[in-house]
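Quick one, tokens below:
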């Protein structure tokens, strides 16, 4: 299921929310109607909370069905509702949502992450994590969206980067845009294998591409 949404007039859903197969974290500024749209599209529990006092959990959290990686500034009170294994990332690149692209089986991470941090990310998410870029961008979580069915990435992603993504994630990999030509698709949507929520400015052509790329057709 594919749904459109804006948050206070902002179509960058992936900044204000982070989703996986069983959980979606959203900014506490979202209302009941917005949360209902997310619940219907993704079929998950929805938790409203700040992370590190911020209303942009999409930037600060990376997660899959097993665990969560969060900025090291997140508080115990903010993390208390979650039943997953949680890692406060021990690295200066602590915007986990921007720097980690993951599904339930694999992860691509910012190439500047320390080896020790990558090992801890692997442990908490239960996946193999590999350093890499997407369209030359180190903030791989912004440049792409990954689910257990497909990966949609920045339109300038190179052939070698696509080959790495295919080998790593073992799902189809496509390029595309959202929000009327925006290349940083990770900032434009949240998705899992059941559905996606995209910015309201996303065109019909882009929606078709997203549905195809993420196996939602």
């Amino acid at each position: 299921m594919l749904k459109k949404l804006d948050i206070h007039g902002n179509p960058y859903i992936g900044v204000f929310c982070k989703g996986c197969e069983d959980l979606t974290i959203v900014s506490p500024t979202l209302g009941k109607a917005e949360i209902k749209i997310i619940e219907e599209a993704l079929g998950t529990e929805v938790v409203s909370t700040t992370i590190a006092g911020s209303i942009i959990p999409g930037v600060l959290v990376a997660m899959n069905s097993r665990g969560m990686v969060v900025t090291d500034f997140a508080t115990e009170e903010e993390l208390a509702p979650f039943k997953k294994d949680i890692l406060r990332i021990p690295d200066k690149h602590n915007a986990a949502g921007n720097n980690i692209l993951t599904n339930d089986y694999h992860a691509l991470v910012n190439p500047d992450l320390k080896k020790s941090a990558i090992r801890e990310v692997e442990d908490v998410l239960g996946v193999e994590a590999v350093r890499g870029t997407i369209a030359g961008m180190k903030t791989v979580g912004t440049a792409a969206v990954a689910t257990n069915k497909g990966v949609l990435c920045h339109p300038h992603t190179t052939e070698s980067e696509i080959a790495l993504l295919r080998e790593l994630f073992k799902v189809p990999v496509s390029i595309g845009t959202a929000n009327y030509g925006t290349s940083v698709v990770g900032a434009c949507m949240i998705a899992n294998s059941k559905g996606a929520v995209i910015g309201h400015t996303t065109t019909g052509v882009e929606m078709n591409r997203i549905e195809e790329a993420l196996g939602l057709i």
